[in-house]
Amino acid sequence: MDIKISIDTALYYHKDGKILKAVEIYLELLKKDKDNYRVLSLLGAANIQLGNIDKGICYLKKSIQINSNYAAAHINLGNGFKNKNSFEDALNCYNKAIYLEPNNPDVHCNKGAVLYQLKEFSKALESYNKAIEIDNKHFLSHNNKGILLKDLGNFDEALECYKNSININPKNVLAYISKGDLYLELKRYEDALKSFENAIQIDENQNYLLGKYIRCCMFLCKWENFFPTTQKINKLIKKSLKVVDPFTYMSIMDNPEISKLCAEIYSQDKLSIIPLSKKVSLKKSSKLKIGYFSGDFNNHAVMHLIMDVFKNHNKSNFEIFGFSFRPDKDDHWTEKLKKYFDGFNNVKEYTDIQIANLSKKIGIDIAVDLTGFTKSSRVGVFAHRAAPIQINYLGYPGTLGSEFFDYIIADEIIIPKKNSNFFSEKVLYLPNCYQANMSSKQVSEKTITKSELNLPDDKFIFACFNNNYKITPDIFNSWMNILKRVPKSILWLLKSNESSILNLQKEAIKRNVNPERIIFAPPLPNDEHLNRLRLADLFLDSFPYNSHTTASDIVRMGVPIVTVIGNSFASRVCASILTTLKLPELITNNITEYESLAVELALDDKKITKFKNSVKDSAKNSILFDSVNFTRNLEKLYLSL
């Protein structure tokens, strides 16, 4: 067998994606020449691509032992270490390769990617710029530079980088996805959707692309492809494919079994290459050190719930520490909550392992993740075992599908015992509603009238102030049925983006409802928003992702809420709140019951008045807003571990 021809043949298969066939030829070549460093390097690279990272690294180390001046082996070895999150080792390999081949743009680009992971952003930018200086057509470096600039908040420059990458290679699917991610963050949903659609046309099988697409559609209330897309998503998840992030899935489907599988796939994909730190036993001292980890220590719904817990912790038994990986600047909420902590650490520029090591150095006993798989997710911190006990709580309404979270905090409405197998974490049950709440909130005292808010004085006001992504075509269809059955009524929704307003109006027309009966409320500061909630007559909950913070706000302001209780965590939160308020009559089991109850209350003045009074009385006296009692119950859970 001619070595040169066989290597060329193997490379042809390798580049064509037929890696197993290439490996077969490489192994045959090694039988004839076991010290062929080039073949060993290619075989190592192929194994890394196949996910056999340790095996690939062994081949590459052997290649380098035979010829330490072969740059490609150092590059491939660096790629192996990078895939294992062994970033320092990867950096050493790339530096060696650069010494041997200083004008290779690929290695500078790869080095930049590692420096990015190490959060050495200025050095990463230098590496990307060097790669582009060597080869201005290096489209991957343009794309990676854009991702870095996006993280630094330089959105216009990032967008220019993505456009450069696409101009160089119009088939570069990664740049379209990156551009879509940026537009999504900027809430330019139409532009984001177009980018994701372009990516789908090139390669619809890109990881999580279908999830990004459907999430964009939900923000736009653009539902033409909702049902075929969600059916496809379910089928692909069942095949263990990386199709959608777990947070997006729970907003469109009420299926805790598939939701768990989705979380397991996502967690395995994002974190499996991190060597799990060994769990250690909790050694209780005179005071337990509790670490709260969040990307939302600011004016955010999670802080609107849990602020009083920080304030009420018993400092005789507990020391509490904050770990903030928030990407933006602090605000007045951040400054207010800092004073409740024994130590507050801004770790946004730390790597995951650096945050975990800081937690260990402080001696945190129990680490509570308040973010989960939401926007500022840093669950990698917990893969490095930040504390002997690690808990998933509040910020993410579902399982994280991983080995390293020991517990999830819930109540028996949120997670009935029969549903506990849908969670990778062991369930810790609070005696009442799992949701922390502030005892009181600042509410604007400004007198407002319906006419000031463009609301009619003589109509029944149904309302829903949930985010657009929680509005599914099924729940909207139900709302339109309710409006048709209650002629003298309007629906009051939160205004998001202009496209979603137009789309909702079109959807209303399709269902023979005058679109003028839907009135959109602009965003307001929280104290003014709470004040205007009083003007609603009945709040219509969303499904399958319920109102969470919004539900406790609406009952706090004395407005009844009708909900559908589902099977998933996200679809049972409002039912938990209403149960705690002793108002189970407002919980329905399906859409038909939901519609009937909403219509019944709207058409019966005495009944709706009775429920308004009941909600006001219950909210005033309920343990739902007794933050001291809630904190003591939470502390009992901590002490029981």
Helix content: 40-55%
The biggest sheet, with number of strands, parallel, antiparallel or mixed sense and barrel status, is: 7 strands, parallel
Query: In which order are the strands of the major sheet placed?
Result: 3-2-1-4-5-6-7
The dominant shape is: globular
Unreliable segments of 5+ consecutive residues: none
CATH architecture of the domain at 451-625, please? Answer: 3-Layer(aba) Sandwich
> Which structural class matches the secondary elements?
alpha/beta
The gyration radius over C-alpha positions equals: 27 Å
**How confident overall, as mean pLDDT?**
95
Cα(first) to Cα(last) distance is 65 Å
Instruction: Please tally the β strands and state the result.
Output: 13
- Total count of helical runs of at least 4 residues: 28
The CATH class assignment of the domain at 451-625 is Alpha Beta
Strand proportion, as a percent range, falls in 5-15%
- CATH homologous superfamily grouping of the domain at 451-625: Glycogen Phosphorylase B
Features:
13 strands, Rossmann fold, 641 residues, 53% helix, alpha/beta
Overall description:
The structure is a single chain. By secondary structure, the protein is of the alpha/beta class. Among the domains are: 207-274, no CATH class; 288-429, Rossmann fold, CATH 3.40.50.11380; 451-625, 3-Layer(aba) Sandwich (Rossmann fold), CATH 3.40.50. 53% of the residues lie in helices and 9% in strands. Strand 12, helix 25 (573-580) and strand 13 form a beta-alpha-beta unit. The longest helix has 17 residues, at 605-621. It starts with a helix and ends with a helix. 49% of the residues are buried. The mean pLDDT is 95.
